[in-house]
């Protein structure tokens, strides 16, 4: 039996029509297995967020299949969504709450027992060095603390799939290392992690497998070591630049946009 938690096959998503149409996803295949951190790597506009939106049922594909823990996520998006935990690119507003209360509430909403959620919340606050801000009103915390709180909300009661969209934005270098450690721990605990980022250097630190997107298409897949070894410079950053090249000007990609 396959241990794939997420299986995407021949995924297509197009926005608009005629000369203004944008092919956001163009025949994407991707898998993420239990215990694995899979990095979806690509520049802004490569199609990463569109892919995530389809995985969690916010958007429907034009063609292709998505299975999440055995559930057809296209036919049953609500059922699939219940099996996933998501840290979105934009933080969820928690005005009126403290980080501790926000994390605890999400754990309870996801069905965790009170004692277990309290214990897990305390662990995450400690592991991410959020203790000094744990009981401070959310309106008074920094962007980095808010970002770490959003991660903890996704991690307190992780689903079969944990989707992390740019989780390190605004996080300082010291706590960023703590965050990577917790991401690895989620996978080691048996979940599949889909890590979405355009930060090439960070992608090397904790991931097992990399899928590189460029203009909606998969241009390379493999371990960070294999992708690095196969390209000049022998680093993932060099491999990435070699694969996607310099971003084309908007006029070259979509001439009609340049005229607006």
UniProtKB/TrEMBL annotation:
One of its GO terms (cellular component) is plasma membrane. The keyword ATP-binding applies. It comes from the Bacteria. The keyword Nucleotide-binding applies. It is a peripheral membrane protein. One of its GO terms (biological process) is response to antibiotic. Its main location: membrane. It is found in: Cell membrane. One of its GO terms (molecular function) is ATP hydrolysis activity. Keywords: Antibiotic resistance, ATP-binding, Nucleotide-binding, Transport. Residues 6-240 form the ABC transporter domain. PROSITE patterns: ABC_TRANSPORTER_2 (PS50893). This is ABC transporter ATP-binding protein. It comes from Xylanimonas allomyrinae.
């Amino acid at each position: 039996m396959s241990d794939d938690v997420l299986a995407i096959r021949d995924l297509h998503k197009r926005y608009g029509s005629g000369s203004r149409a944008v092919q956001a996803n163009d025949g994407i295949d991707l898998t993420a297995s239990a215990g694995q951190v899979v990095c979806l790597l690509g520049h802004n506009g490569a199609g990463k967020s569109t892919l995530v939106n389809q995985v969690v049922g916010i958007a429907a594909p034009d063609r292709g299949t998505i299975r999440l823990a055995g559930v057809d996520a296209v036919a049953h998006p609500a059922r699939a969504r219940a099996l996933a935990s998501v840290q979105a690119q934009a933080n969820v507003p928690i005005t009126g709450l403290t980080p501790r209360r926000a994390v605890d509430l999400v754990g309870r909403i996801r069905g965790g027992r009170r004692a277990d959620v309290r214990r897990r919340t305390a662990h995450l606050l400690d592991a991410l060095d959020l203790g000094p801000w744990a009981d401070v009103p959310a309106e008074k915390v920094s962007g980095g603390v808010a970002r770490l709180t959003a991660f903890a909300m996704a991690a307190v009661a992780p689903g079969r799939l944990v989707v992390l969209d740019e989780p390190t934005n605004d996080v300082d270098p010291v706590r960023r290392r703590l965050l990577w450690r917790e991401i690895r721990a989620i996978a080691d605990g048996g979940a599949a992690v889909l890590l979405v980022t355009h930060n090439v250097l960070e992608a090397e630190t904790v991931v097992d497998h990399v899928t590189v997107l460029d203009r909606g298409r998969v241009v390379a897949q493999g371990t960070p070591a294999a992708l690095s070894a196969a390209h000049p410079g022998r680093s993932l950053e060099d491999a990435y630049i070699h694969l996607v090249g310099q971003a084309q000007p908007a006029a070259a990609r979509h001439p009609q946009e340049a005229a607006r």
